[in-house]
Amino acid sequence: ESIHNVLQSGANLTTNPRQNPNVIEGKNILSNSNSNVNQSQSNLFSHQQKTEIEKNADLWFKKGVNLFDSFEYIEAIKAYDQAIKIKPNFPEAWYNKGLTLRKLNQDQEAINAYDQAIKLYPKFGQAWYNKGWILEKLGKDKEAMLCFSQAITFCPKLYQAWNNRGVTLEKMGRRKEAIEAYNKALSLNSNYQLAFDNLKITY
After folding, report:
1. Neighbour-count burial of 179, counting CB atoms closer than 10 A to its CB (0-12 exposed, 13-18 middle, 19+ buried)
2. pLDDT tens-digit series, residues 84-108
């Protein structure tokens, strides 16, 4: 690892299955005033079924978080897979699966998991950030740059992404832009030592 390549590691595990409140929109269980009673009861029953399914998926998700915290990464992946099997459109579970795969050095599998999270929720800044971190590590600077740019677009206060964007820009010979990125990271977190060190090296 060269002195210029001081990347901030990937973002943290998502512990709340509702980390992104806009991902899963609640549907109105009540029919409109012109609907008959049977239709209204049918909608209510469907909602109850859906709620029960989501509860089961959330239980597997939380189990995965606990297993991850206990360093039982293989079992954590199994738990996230169960959550995804129950509820395929579960971006947070895909995201956490990606983080766990990264712990096992399964980089391509982790990227695939982040891609699924992003497909379900394109504004998932942390997923873009973590995907970029792996791509930069693999030497795919242009792809990493795109990911960090997306992360910043959706999470403009994610100072780690600004730092990593600076590292990638510097590797691409874009020193002035790298300095701007490091300064932006420091403007968001003045105690961010990694960006300060990178900026000092760049000067």
Report:
1. middle
2. 999 999 999 999 999 999 999 999 9
